[in-house]
């Protein structure tokens, strides 16, 4: 019996190995034949272009602002206070922004969003030709990034019916700023873009939404996933209506990003959002917190500047309209444009050949080894995202 069991174990190991090899081969083939996008054709810089970034005082919004600044764009930045947005402006000017003006804007308030666009239009159309003014006469890029998580950390790990009186409030918070506010902002963005951009121009504007993989896969909270899924659908539907105006609309999926909020949550340990989630209540498996905490500050985590530089590359691309209506993961888009972060590194997506290599062989994560990893280990998804959508994403059909 022992010999029989050994043969059985060997056979199982052999079969598993063959299946893993087959999966890699299929992934390589799909990667090779499944693209179809035009080769990037990038403008040299964004000098002469104007961008609005909401929620730009920290995190991804700040990263987007700095990435656009490096490319020479003129910027309008919003935050809850003008002072906090101005701090990002100071950094943006040092990095190359040709102009930067800060605004306070409460994205829960439609009137404040409308007033923001009125102020931007007035600034764009002013006849001020003095040094330090914005001489661009149109709005080219709008990044709808502002988002409010409320007190999610207090109720994380609880099922949606166990959140008490906060359940409905949480839903309202996560869908008002970050979904409804994106919609309202886009209404005024379209009006201003179509008013100021030349009729018939091939590129009359770019509207970007910050979303996340939580729009496809369950993570943290039901309300969170619903909001992100709606953002992705909004980009797809808006793109149909903006096509006639030659305005591109996309939804971006940053990965696991090293932000102030993430650092704070991880520092709370089991009292933070990620520390409280568990299988069936914020996560689909156990050990989510331990895994996420182990990757903070490592090459497995994206930087805000990687996201900003990737966005800037998209804005410079003459063929960006091919992505209109689509969800654009930073990991995929940064690869498409060959973008790297401030450490000359490009973070791979989860479950790619490069990600698995870094996970299995931790020594590869050392800074001195990263150039070798980037050069010699291919970054190929073991399961393409369209297949993940079919297998795991919503809606799920019978």
UniProtKB/TrEMBL annotation:
Source domain of life is Eukaryota
Q: Which Pfam families match?
A: adh_short (PF00106)
Where, if anywhere, are coiled coils annotated?
none
InterPro entries of this UniProt entry? NAD(P)-bd_dom_sf, Sc_DH/Rdtase_CS, SDR_fam
Spell out the protein name for this chain. Answer: Dehydrogenase/reductase SDR family member 1
